[in-house]
Design brief:
The chain is mainly α. It is built from 20 helices and three strands.
């Protein structure tokens, strides 16, 4: 049988059908979001929906070409494509056009190319190429260092634009590493650090230090099973806390509770360590003490990272999300209007082209970052359920495709595709309903723009091409 015919038979047409459905629904909702009575035709190239049709046409052409290219092309040129993506990220810093404070687009005639979108595809191929090599083990320090370098270079270049949303998406590759054998404890540790970052913005640093030491003490107690020393430590803590409170009261100085707890933990903790080391039971101490110290140092660095590395508008968005400040007419306006639009749709929506929040431009960026609010307003709970269902189906299909690959290269790449789609989908919808900060990240296949649509099309169709030839061995 001709190889091209065999490829056509093995192509996963269900995944392509879901892709086409999402693209068409996105186009229709872009039309609804910026509908103009003077430009009723959805094919009007003076309007965004006309331009989107052009991007969709080219996307379908790109997808078709990818299916015709031999799979060995992607393995052979993986590192070269990665290098080209880095060159584009460097080039955009020199000749790029600044939009909304980010120098992230290269103008090519009337079209704006966003290299950060395509760099995700290149990184997925480069990581798959490296990790599928001989004698590469995920648990080795060398492997982790190389993967981190592959990710770190584009992250730094994107940070110079800056584009916080794209940087965040690169964290999705941690899920790929987990699938390939990275210990789950590493992911849990990352989630805990993220939680600690947000908590440090809300709570007194001293209170956090007390909490960290408390948690470390309890964990040590569970793992070490040195119950006698634990009981002695708890008693010492109680006595020291009572003495601290009593002395402060006698002296006429009322201390805050966490100051009393801090003093008790510091003194009793030092005593506990001395006793433990004296009895040579240091196995678990050498594990937990560095973690506790590291967590305290991380907490101390949060203010610097927040104030020095984040842009002022990003800081304010964090504050609004965490409830530290309220700015319904300023930084919080987009999210408030988005939630109003989605909530006003009710169960079945207001109807096609009947959305007032979107029609009268109450929601900024309603064709890009906030396209989902158009779905909620005009199609209601039913419409959003259908869209979310299609995305979930697509991600599940991608996972199925990735898992049935015989080649390690294509499997790793497949999980990269699933992770990137999952992050984009989750973060975009999360920020439109007020659960996550607004960081400017498109909804795959839905948001307006050629770069985003083409990059996601390339990302998905390379996997579909791999799956069509899944019985081949790729490296």
């Amino acid at each position: 049988m001709n190889p091209n015919n065999r490829t056509a038979i093995n192509v996963d047409w269900l995944t392509i059908a879901v892709y086409v459905a999402l693209v068409i629904l996105g186009w229709i909702n872009i039309y609804a979001a910026v509908y103009n009575e003077e430009h009723k035709s959805i094919f009007d190239f003076q309007m965004r929906y006309g331009n989107q049709m052009l991007w969709i046409t080219f996307a379908f052409l790109i997808g078709t070409i990818i299916l015709l290219i031999d799979t060995k092309f992607y393995t052979f040129f993986a590192y070269i494509l990665y290098g080209l993506s880095l060159l584009l990220l460097l080039l955009v810093l020199v000749i790029g056009k600044e939009i909304n404070g980010a120098k992230a687009w290269i103008n090519i005639g009337p079209f704006g190319l966003q290299p950060a979108e395509f760099s995700k595809v290149a990184c997925a191929l480069a990581i798959a190429k490296y990790m599928s090599g001989y004698n590469v083990k995920i648990n080795s320090l060398k492997t982790l260092m190389v993967v981190c370098v592959i990710l770190f270079i584009p992250i730094v270049l994107i940070a110079l634009q800056p584009d916080a949303g794209s940087i965040l998406v690169f964290l999705s590759f941690s899920l790929v590493l987990y699938r390939e054998g990275l210990p789950g404890s590493v992911l849990i540790f990352g989630v805990l650090l993220a939680a600690l970052f947000f908590i440090s913005l809300l709570v007194s640093k001293l209170a956090i230090v007390v909490g960290i030491i408390s948690l470390g003490f309890l964990i040590y107690m569970l793992f070490s099973k040195n119950y006698k020393e634990t009981v002695i430590g708890l008693l010492a803590f109680g006595v020291i806390a009572a003495l601290t409170w009593g002395v402060s009261s006698i002296a006429g100085k009322k201390l805050e509770l966490y100051y009393i707890l801090a003093a008790a933990f510091i003194v009793s903790g030092i005593g506990f360590l001395v006793v433990t080391i004296f009895f040579r039971r240091i196995k678990h101490v050498t594990t937990f003490v560095p973690i506790i110290i590291g967590s305290i140092l991380f907490t101390s660095s949060v203010d610097y990272v927040f104030n020095k590395l984040l842009e002022p508008h990003q800081q304010r968005r964090m504050h609004i999300l965490l409830g530290i400040e309220s700015d319904p007419l300023g930084m919080g306006y987009n999210v408030n209007q988005s939630m109003i639009a989605i909530g006003s749709g009710g169960f079945a929506g207001k109807g096609f082209l009947q959305g007032t929040q979107t029609k009268y431009n109450f929601v900024p960026e309603q064709t890009t970052d906030f396209i989902f609010c158009t779905v909620g307003e005009e199609w209601g709970f039913l419409g959003t359920g259908v869209v979310i269902g299609l995305f979930v189906l697509l991600i599940i299909r991608v996972l199925i495709l990735a898992e049935r690959q015989r080649s390690l290269f294509s499997r790793i790449y497949g999980y990269s595709v699933a992770s990137i789609l999952f992050f984009h989908f989750t973060i975009n919808i999360g920020m439109t309903i007020g659960l996550l900060p607004v960081i400017g990240i498109p909804l795959p296949f839905f948001s307006y723009g050629g770069s985003s649509l083409w990059a996601f099309t390339i990302l998905l169709f390379i996997l579909i091409r791999f799956d069509a030839s899944r019985f081949e061995l790729l490296r």
